[in-house]
Design brief:
Rossmann fold, two-stranded antiparallel ribbon, 2 domains, 22 helices, binds tryptophan, alpha/beta
C-alpha cells in the first residue's frame, strides 16, 4: 500500500483545532471565521506569498487576478513545481469541479471558476470540469435522476461564465462513466492503492457509511490523471493544476499520495478561502439555506432584501458609536462580498478606510454591495439564457480539444 503521508500528518494535527473543515462541513467558533493560518499548518500546504505571486506574474506575463492578489486564494501545493515546468516549455491542464446539489448555484460557487477561467485564458491550456452528481446522490437525499438533472443545470451556469468551448470539457460522472472506459479504469487503479483504513483517516468514514461513499474519492481523484481523457490527451501523462476551495483538499491529499504509484506527477493545487454566509464568516454560503446565500437566479429585489435583512454587519449599534469608533471590515459581510467581487483596488481601499473610520455607515456599505452584485447577477442571467441545449451538449461531449496540436508541438 502507499504511504498516505500527507493524509497522515493531517490527521494528527487536526485534533488540536476547533474549526471543522472537510468536504461536507465548514464551521468555525470565531466571528472572524476559519483560522486559515492554522488550517495551512494542519493540512500541510503552503502560503501563496508575495514572492510566489510575483513569480506567477512573471510566468503569466500579466498581473494576477484580484482573487489571487487579495490572497482569497491563499494556499497551494506544488505551484512552484508547476511553474517550473511551464517555464521549461511544458504544457499542463486545469481540472476543477462542482457538486450539483441544487438547481441554482450561488455567488460563492463562482469563485474557483473565476480563477480557473483566468488561468485558462492566461496559459491557454485545456480544462476539464467534473460535476459529481454521483457524490451528491450518495450524500444527499437525491435520486440519480435528480442529481443528473442538476448537473446539467449547473453546467449551464458554468458555461455562462464564458469558458471557451474549444478548450473545455465538462462532464457529469454518472454520464461520462458510461461513455469512457478509461475513466473507470483509472478509478479502479486508484481504488487498488487505498485501504478502508486510509479513507477512514482522511474522510472520517465509519462502519455504517454506505459503500458508495467509501469508493467515491477515487472518482474525484481520477480526473487529476490525464489518461482519464484519452480523447484529449492520448496516453500523455501531463501535469495538472487544480483550483478549488480548501475544503476539497482531503480528496487531493489522497490523490497526491497515490500519484507516484501510478506514474503521474502529483497534482498542483491552489486553494481558496470560503465565501461567507450572509449571516457571517462562521460558516460558508450554502445552497441548502436560502437565506444564507445570494443565488444566481435571484432578482435585483431579492438581492437587495437579502443583503439589507441578513448580511451581518460589522458596524456599531448606534449611529453615534459608529461615527466615533468605526466599523469592523473583518466581520462585515457586505465588505467581504466586495473583496470577492469589486475588483477596483483603489475603490475597495477607499471603502475600507471610510468604513473603519466610521465615515461610511452600515446601510451605506450594504448599498455599495447591493449595487455591485445586482449587475453581476443580472449579467450572468442574460448570458445563461444564451446557453442552449446544443451548446451544453457540445461542452459535455467527449471530444478532441482544439489545442491538442499546441501540446504536441510544445513537447
Ligand atoms: N466535490 C466537489 C463539490 O462537492 C466537486 C468537485 C469535483 C471538485 N471535482 C473537483 C471541486 C475538483 C474542485 C476541484 O463541490
Amino acid at each position: 500500500m502507499v504511504d498516505i503521508s500527507e493524509s497522515k500528518n493531517f490527521k494528527e494535527a487536526s485534533a488540536e483545532c476547533d474549526d471543522i473543515v472537510d468536504p461536507w462541513i465548514v464551521s468555525s467558533t470565531s466571528d472572524n471565521g476559519v483560522n486559515y493560518e492554522k488550517l495551512i499548518e494542519r493540512f500541510g500546504c503552503s502560503h501563496i506569498d508575495d514572492e510566489l505571486i510575483e513569480r506567477l506574474e512573471k510566468v503569466a506575463g500579466r498581473p494576477v487576478h484580484a482573487l489571487i492578489r487579495r490572497k482569497i486564494f491563499f494556499s497551494h501545493r506544488d505551484l512552484h513545481t508547476l511553474l517550473k515546468a511551464v517555464e521549461s516549455g511544458k504544457k499542463f491542464y486545469l481540472y476543477t469541479g462542482r457538486g450539483p446539489s441544487s438547481d441554482s448555484m450561488h455567488l460563492g460557487h463562482l469563485i474557483p471558476f473565476i480563477v480557473t477561467k483566468w488561468l485558462q485564458e492566461t496559459f491557454d491550456v485545456p480544462l476539464v470540469i467534473q460535476l459529481t452528481d454521483d457524490e451528491k446522490t450518495l450524500w444527499k437525499n437525491l435520486t440519480v435522476e435528480q442529481s443528473m438533472k442538476m448537473a446539467r443545470e449547473n453546467a449551464k451556469d458554468i458555461i455562462a461564465m464564458g469558458f471557451d468551448i474549444d478548450k473545455t470539457f465538462i462532464f457529469s460522472n454518472l454520464d461520462f462513466m458510461g461513455r469512457c472506459s478509461a475513466f473507470y479504469q483509472n478509478i479502479i487503479r486508484i481504488q487498488k492503492c487505498v485501504t478502508f483504513n486510509q479513507v477512514k483517516g482522511i474522510f472520517g468514514f465509519g462502519d455504517s457509511d454506505i459503500i458508495g461513499k467509501i469508493g467515491f474519492p477515487a472518482a474525484q481523484a481520477a480526473p487529476a490523471f490525464s489518461t482519464t481523457f484519452p480523447f484529449i490527451f492520448g496516453k500523455d501523462k501531463l501535469p495538472v493544476l487544480i483550483p478549488c476551495a480548501i475544503d476539497q483538499d482531503p480528496y487531493f491529499r489522497m490523490t497526491r499520495d497515490v500519484s507516484p504509484r501510478l506514474g503521474f506527477p502529483k497534482p498542483a493545487l491552489i486553494h481558496s478561502s470560503f465565501f461567507p454566509a450572509l449571516q457571517g464568516a462562521k460558516t460558508k454560503m450554502s445552497a441548502s439555506d436560502a437565506n444564507s446565500a445570494i443565488f444566481l437566479t435571484d432578482t435585483p429585489k431579492q438581492i437587495k432584501t437579502k443583503i439589507n435583512k441578513h448580511a451581518f454587519s460589522g458596524g456599531k449599534q448606534t449611529l453615534e458609536e459608529h461615527r466615533e469608533f468605526g466599523g469592523n471590515t473583518d466581520v462585515d459581510v457586505s465588505f467581504q462580498l466586495l473583496r470577492f467581487f469589486l475588483y477596483d483596488d483603489d475603490e475597495l481601499e477607499r471603502i475600507r478606510v471610510a468604513y473603519t473610520k466610521g465615515e461610511l455607515l452600515s446601510g451605506e456599505i450594504k448599498k455599495i454591495a447591493i449595487d455591485t452584485l445586482q449587475p453581476i447577477v443580472s449579467d450572468h442571467q442574460a448570458k445563461r439564457k444564451e446557453v442552449t441545449d446544443e451548446i451544453l451538449e457540445k461542452f459535455m461531449t467527449p471530444r478532441k480539444l482544439n489545442y491538442d496540436l499546441i501540446i504536441k508541438i510544445s513537447k
